[in-house]
C-alpha cells in the first residue's frame, strides 16, 4: 500500500519536516542517494521530493521509477534558487497529469 511521503535533501533544509510525519532522507553523497531511491518501492513511498542537487546524477534511477505508478519522484529547489531542471520536470509532470502545461507559468 502506498501512503507515505518522503523528502531527500540536505539535513539542515529538510529535518524539520519530520515533525509533520514526513519521512526524510539525508544522503551524504550521490551513491547514498542512489541506494535510497532503490529502496523507495519496498518502503511503500508514494511521493518522494528530491532536492535538485540529486536530480541530474540520478536521472537513470528516476527514469526507471517514473515508468511505474508509484513512487512519484518530483524535484524541489530550496529558497536560494529555482533551477531550470525543476521547471522542466514540473512541466513534464503537469503534462502527464492534465495533458497540458498551462498550469506551469514561466518567464518564457
Sum this structure up briefly:
It contains five helices and four strands. It has about 110 residues and is of the alpha/beta class.
Our count of helices gives: 5
Terminal Cα span? 40 Å
Question: Which descriptor suits the 3D outline?
Answer: globular
- CATH level-two architecture: 3-Layer(aba) Sandwich
Helix share of residues? 25-40%
Which spans have pLDDT < 50 for at least 5 consecutive residues?
Answer: none
The total tally of domains equals 1
Query: In sequence order, what are the helices and strands, one letter per element?
Result: EHEHEHHEH
Q: Count every beta strand, where a strand is a DSSP E run of 2 or more residues.
A: 4
The main sheet comes to: 4 strands, parallel
Task: Give the class from helix and strand content and strand pairing.
Answer: alpha/beta
Amino acid at each position: 500500500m502506498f501512503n507515505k511521503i518522503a523528502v531527500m535533501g540536505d539535513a539542515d533544509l529538510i529535518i524539520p519536516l519530520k515533525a509533520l510525519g514526513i519521512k526524510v532522507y539525508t544522503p551524504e553523497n550521490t551513491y547514498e542517494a542512489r541506494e535510497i531511491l532503490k529502496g523507495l518501492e519496498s518502503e511503500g513511498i508514494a511521493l518522494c521530493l528530491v532536492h535538485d542537487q540529486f536530480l541530474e546524477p540520478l536521472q537513470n534511477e528516476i527514469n526507471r521509477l517514473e515508468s511505474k505508478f508509484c513512487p512519484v519522484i518530483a524535484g524541489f529547489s530550496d529558497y536560494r534558487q529555482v533551477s531550470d531542471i525543476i521547471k522542466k520536470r514540473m512541466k513534464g509532470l503537469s503534462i502527464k497529469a492534465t495533458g497540458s502545461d498551462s498550469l506551469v507559468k514561466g518567464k518564457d
